[in-house]
Design brief:
Radius of gyration: 19 Å
Helix content: 55-70%
Oligomer: single chain
CATH class: Mainly Alpha
CATH superfamily: Winged helix-like DNA-binding domain superfamily/Winged helix DNA-binding domain
Order of helices and strands: EEHHHEEH
Number of domains: 1
Number of strands: 4
Structural class: mainly alpha
CATH architecture: Orthogonal Bundle
Distance between the termini: 15 Å
Strand order of the largest sheet: 1-2
């Protein structure tokens, strides 16, 4: 049997969760929120992020329910043809997630690289 140990690696994902360990926001949801911020409409944000409308809408409502506050506001029709914007708390979530990533992503990458090298070296010795 061919060894595939050279394809092994440690990796990580970061998300925000409740005290009960229920996931609220991860990279995908943050991409969607950032797209809403950038595009100004839910349709354009979903198209830009490559998501499905119904699933994204349901996820946003679930996130708001778990958080206990609104993260988006929608405005239908009118002169602006409707839009979706982040609330102030929605902006704060994006900022906090980005701040975490800027502080710790490089540390986590290096830690994963070291752990991967250690694992592959240990396997090599067997």
């Amino acid at each position: 049997m061919e060894s595939r140990k050279d394809r092994l690696r440690f990796n990580f994902k970061v998300w925000i969760e409740t005290e009960e360990k229920k996931g609220i926001l991860g990279y995908g949801q943050m991409r969607l929120l950032q797209a809403i911020k950038d595009k100004g409409t839910l349709n354009n944000a979903i198209r830009d992020a490559g998501f499905h409308y119904r699933k994204s809408w349901d996820k946003l409502k679930t996130i708001e329910s778990l958080l206990g506050f609104r993260i988006i506001e929608t405005h239908r029709g009118g002169a602006n043809k409707g839009n979706t914007v982040l609330t102030e708390k929605g902006h704060k979530l994006i900022d906090a997630f980005e701040k975490f990533n800027s502080r710790y992503e490089e540390i986590l990458k290096k830690t994963c690289e070291t752990a991967t090298n250690d694992l592959l070296n240990d396997l090599q010795e067997l």
